Amino acid sequence: MKMLKECEFEKLVLQSIRSKAEDPEIERHLRSCAACKETAKIARFINADLVEESAQHKLPTAGFIWWKSSLQQKQRAAETVVHPTRMAHAAALFIAFFTVLWLVSSGWYQQSFIAPAFDRVLDSLESLAPALVFGILGFACISFIVMLIYRRDLSDE
After folding, report:
1. Do 125 and 86 belong to one domain?
2. Calpha distance 52→48 (Å, rounded)
3. Do 66 and 45 have their domain in common?
4. How far apart are CA 67 and CA 152, in angstroms?
5. Looking at residue 52, what is its pLDDT?
6. How would you class 13 by CB atoms within 10 Å of its CB: exposed for 0-12, middle for 13-18, buried for 19 or more?
7. In terms of domains, do 69 and 107 share one?
8. Are residues 79 and 131 in the same domain?
9. How far apart, in Å, do the first and last CA atoms of the chain sit?
10. Would you place residue 88 in the very low, low, confident or very high pLDDT band (cuts 50, 70, 90)?
């Protein structure tokens, strides 16, 4: 590779390219000096490459970054709140399912009316158990409704 001599105009050529100023004297010099011509070619290539890269990697606005961070924080908070509700809902459904199984296995469906079956359930359980079963079923229904409302509110935002 042939080494070119340095020229005292190189700094002026670089400044002209960086500032994008067109100086007729520098343009004349570029036609006659091989070292400055090579320097200008490289500087233009690097300058064009940097402009292209900066256009491709445009940073988002501060407001967008803040909004996205706020949204992620709300989603994390929602997951923290919804998790215990989902667990309680699953437990209530589990208890309700096994209560129905127990009622079916005890023969309540063979009764001609629901009232005698309900009386059999009350007779076979402690006095607190019916309130507990209905309370758990009510809690399951209420938590399910709250979860639907909360999910709708999150999707609106």
Report:
1. yes
2. 6
3. no
4. 20
5. 54
6. buried
7. yes
8. yes
9. 63
10. confident
Is 1 a member of any domain? no
Query: Does 35 lie in the same domain as 77?
Result: no
Q: Are 123 and 46 found together in one domain?
A: no
pTM above 0.70, yes or no: no
Q: What is the number of structural domains in the chain?
A: 2
Query: CB of 36 within 8 A of CB of 13?
Result: yes
Contact between 66 and 40 (Cβ < 8 Å)? no
> Does 3 reside within a domain?
no
Q: Is residue 2 part of a domain?
A: no
List of long-range contacts for 11-15, beta carbons under 8 Å, 24+ apart: 13/39, 13/40, 13/43, 14/39, 14/43
Q: Are 155 and 100 in contact (CB under 8 A)?
A: no
pLDDT tens for residues 116-136?
A: 767 776 677 666 677 778 888
Classify residue 40 as exposed, middle or buried by CB count within 10 Å of its CB (0-12, 13-18, 19+): buried
Structural domain boundaries, residue 99: 62-156
**What distance in Å separates the CA atoms of residue 137 and residue 88, rounded to the nearest whole number?**
11
Q: Is the pLDDT of residue 157 over 70?
A: no
Residue 68 and residue 36 share a domain:
no
